[in-house]
Design goal:
CATH class of one domain: Alpha Beta
Helix content: 25-40%
Strand order of the largest sheet: 11-12-10-13-14-9-15
Oligomer: single chain
Number of helices: 28
Number of strands: 21
Largest sheet: 7 strands, parallel
CATH architecture of one domain: 3-Layer(aba) Sandwich
């Protein structure tokens, strides 16, 4: 009897180099273990036919159906031998829907003989439309004959697994390859501690792998999925729990604010009272800052909920306690914006060491990559001597040259734009690890917070301050109703007539046709045969056409930092009526007088991004208006997405919608990059209970055995998920 291949055996030894090469290139599968963890996407029952009505356009699909009709057509063709070409048209049915298969030329002979009416088979190919009918051109197929020895053997059991496949490798070929390596499942080491597995009534791992690939009943599938979801959730949560545990062992300087110093003076200056939420979150942060271990807290809040104010109070508490605080922003525009709003909020308290500065003032410095040499030298000196209590900057803050006198707190804005490597580099600037506060304006459902930001405690600001105005949002279907777009520009003129201002947002800048970006087209671009609308083109059209006479300015990422800042200053001062921009204005830009935003090609932006952009208007006392312009048809998924954004201002609700429309791998970003172990069975939104329970179990197990010495199989699974370095730096989505 042949030896059972080991789980780390390369596939080329087991399946041969050709098949192994396709599996590695197209599915990322390299070893026997990888292949065993390539789970079926769904199952077909013998005797039950697939729903053909729900096939997605442009995707590679596998269907099980019955041949209803087959016709061979002969037609004149200069390319075919003897001037005659052949086309075989086969109609397949699932009893409710029908689908056409087309074969041409020499490829008609075999299917003409085999695909006779009444024959059942599995068909795989890419769904396209011809003459307004769905079709598969030249699909691969596998006959399902009850009397065929091979079919009975290959598809033993009543349920046929259908695998995520590619054009180069059909589902049934993957199924046959898995059949070859399935005996190796018996060798799978079980990462779940036995007490946990038995306590929760979960299958042993070898049995779960057998049942997921060769189920006899639907109960087999359910049991296997329940077990494999637990594996994914648990191993990931153990990685995060170990990071939390390691962080909790680090020493930190407790930072307790002095009663009558800069924080108290700042609070006295505020022209409004803090919301209940702002007070509660501030107390959580102050409690963390007072401990001897570094704070690791995620502050998430709706657009405009006052996160910057809460972060600034935390920074001032640290300055009170004799330390320094650094705020890291993802772009220069945002760093400058934060610096401006912080110095405005602090007034004379930001003028430490200057004439007119308050006696308990500190210095607030800006540090970005594009500063002049003299200003930069002075900023570095202020940081090294401790003269500056607060510094705001881009990743220029992480450079080796930057030395702090006593760094006590790091605030990271819009965390999803920073890797943990950068975060940790900044933490290394303190005498002891500084406290850490991460801010994000993208609402994150609890499950994703537990998974993506699982090494951070979470605080949520869900109240908007008094005085914020409601924002009305509407979809403008430019293709169906061009007069709606004309009306949108009229609304912009009306707002400008009342002394207000407007943003117009476009997906790209406009002069990159020769760049690589312009060559990469999305399916929508191909369908429309036009590139996304561009800032430079739209600004010119508006200034000459519907918005002639208004002062129109442009802002985009390729402008010089000084030019960007000058444009933002003019817009903030009310000198420009309309700002045509890319998503550079997505976060942190605060112009209370801007009341209307028109987003061109809105379907090309994600749900969370649209919500972020919309949050730039309605920041003053006048109501905000957001118009989502699209050419996508009413029935398209893109339009449904825009309708969802227009129908609610609840960021948490929108983030759920966003996640439901994306794959889990996108949700988790790079949480497991560099490995094949991104989530395949666990659904972050639907499996909240499993994730929460896995987090509890992981925390308990790591507290008792941080190095997992008593759980070697779990240690092995963890190493497969992350190499040593990756565990240090679990990337954030």
């Amino acid at each position: 009897m042949d030896a059972v291949p080991a789980l780390d055996e390369p596939l080329k030894k087991v399946l041969g180099p050709a098949t192994a090469k396709v599996m590695a290139e197209h599915l990322g599968l390299h070893t026997v273990g990888d292949l065993l963890h390539h789970y079926p996407r769904r199952y077909e029952e013998r005797g039950q036919l697939t729903h053909l009505a729900d096939l997605p356009m442009g995707e590679h699909v596998t269907v099980v159906a019955q041949v209803a009709d087959a016709r061979l057509h002969t037609f004149a063709s200069s390319r075919a031998p003897r001037g005659k070409g052949q086309r075989l048209e086969v109609t397949i049915t699932d009893g409710s829907g029908r689908l056409q298969l087309v074969f041409f030329g020499a490829g008609v002979h075999k299917p003409h003989k085999e695909l006779l009416p009444g024959t059942r088979a599995m068909f795989a190919g890419k769904v396209s439309v011809f003459n307004r009918r769905l079709q598969l051109a030249h699909p691969a197929y596998e006959l399902l004959r009850a009397d065929s020895e091979e079919a009975v053997e290959s598809w033993a059991g009543a349920l046929i697994p259908l695998y995520p496949a590619t054009a180069k490798l059909e589902s049934w070929k993957i199924g046959k390859a898995i059949q070859t390596v399935l005996p190796s499942a018996q060798e799978a080491a079980d990462p779940l501690p036995e007490t946990l597995r038995e306590g929760r009534g979960l299958l042993p791992l070898p049995e779960a792998l057998l049942k997921i690939h060769r189920p006899h009943t639907k109960a087999d599938i359910d049991q296997a999925r329940a077990r494999l979801k637990w594996d994914e959730a648990f191993v990931l949560q153990v990685a995060l729990a170990r990071r939390r545990h390691a962080d909790a062992q680090l020493p930190a300087v407790p930072r307790r604010p002095r009663p009558d110093d800069i924080l108290a003076a700042f609070d006295d200056r505020l022209p409004f009272t803090l919301t209940e939420g702002q007070r509660k979150v501030s107390e959580e942060i102050f409690a963390d800052l007072a401990t001897e271990h570094p704070m690791h807290r995620l502050l998430q809040g709706e657009v405009g909920s006052g996160k910057t104010l809460v972060a600034l109070r935390a920074m001032l508490a640290v300055v009170d306690a004799g330390g320094q605080a650094a705020m890291l922003a993802p772009t220069e525009v945002l760093a400058q914006q934060h610096h401006r709003s912080v110095t405005e909020m602090m007034g004379e308290l930001a003028e430490g060491g200057m004439l007119g500065g308050s006696e308990n003032a500190t210095k607030v410095v800006l540090l970005t990559g594009s500063m002049g040499a003299a200003a930069r030298r002075q900023a570095l000196l202020d940081l090294a001597t401790g003269e500056a209590g607060v510094v705001i900057g881009t990743h220029a803050l992480i450079e080796d040259k930057v030395q702090f006198h006593d760094l006590g707190l790091v605030v990271v804005d819009e965390q999803h734009r920073f890797g943990v490597e950068q975060r940790d580099a900044l933490r290394g600037k303190g005498k002891q690890p500084p406290h850490l506060l991460v801010m994000t304006a993208t609402p994150i459902p609890r499950t994703v917070a537990m998974t993506v930001f699982g090494d951070l405690e979470t605080s949520v600001l869900d109240q908007l301050p008094a005085g914020r105005s409601p924002i009305a949002s509407h979809v403008v279907p430019a293709a169906d109703k061009p007069h709606f777009l004309a009306r949108a520009w009229e609304r912009v003129r009306e707002e400008a007539g009342k002394g207000h201002q407007a943003y117009v947002v476009c997906p790209r800048i406009g002069d990159e046709e020769d760049g690589a970006k312009a060559k990469k087209k999305s399916p929508e671009d191909e369908a429309e045969k036009r590139p996304p609308l561009a800032v430079l083109d739209i600004a010119e059209q508006l200034a000459r056409g519907p918005l002639a006479g208004l002062h129109v300015e442009v802002l985009h990422g390729r402008m010089q930092p000084d030019d960007k800042d000058a444009v933002m200053r003019r817009f903030a001062a009310g000198e420009a009526d309309v700002l045509v921009a890319t998503t550079v204005i997505e976060v942190g830009v605060n112009v209370p007088n801007a009341t209307v935003m028109v987003i061109m090609d809105a379907d090309r932006f994600g749900v969370s991004q649209l919500h972020q952009l919309r949050g730039r208007v309605g920041r003053g006392s006048a109501p905000g208006l957001c118009l989502l312009v699209t050419e996508m048809p009413e029935a398209s998924a893109a339009r449904q997405r825009l309708n969802a954004v227009a129908s609610t201002l609840d960021g948490f609700e929108l983030s759920r919608i966003d996640l439901e429309q994306r794959r889990e791998g996108d949700v988790l970003g790079q949480a497991q990059s560099g490995t094949r172990s991104s989530l395949r069975m666990l659904a972050v939104i639907d499996d909240e209970e499993v994730i929460a329970e896995a987090r509890e179990e992981a925390t308990r197990i790591v507290a008792a055995d941080p190095d997992l010495e008593r759980l070697p199989a779990l240690r092995t699974a963890l190493d497969a998920l992350l190499d040593e370095e990756r565990e240090q730096y679990l990337e954030k989505g």
